[in-house]
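Deviation from plan, reported transparently: iron/sulfur cluster complex.
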Amino acid sequence: MAQSLFVVDDDSCYGCGACIGLCPTSALSMKGLLAMVEQSKCVFCELCIPSCPVDALDIYAR
Ligand code: SF4
Ligand code: SF4
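Because the crystal trials were delayed, the predicted structure below was used instead.
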């Protein structure tokens, strides 16, 4: 079965924090000026994705 992978584009993310509070499973956190995802907590709901002003968040099939 296809699995998904949630990724933060390290080069685009500038640490605004907009995505962090939107995650229903608290999978997102800040590490310095970079959003980090705890992969095992992400349920791929996509709620956070439109919140990013620089489109740094994406979900890929793997
Ligand atoms: S896709 Fe959903 S579960 Fe995953 S990090 Fe974004 S808000 Fe959280
Ligand atoms: S909303 Fe985008 S730029 Fe802001 S912390 Fe999240 S991933 Fe980084």
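Residues 8, 13-19, 35, 51-52, 54, 56-57 surround iron/sulfur cluster (ligand 2) (CB under 6 Å). We consider this an acceptable substitute for the interim report.
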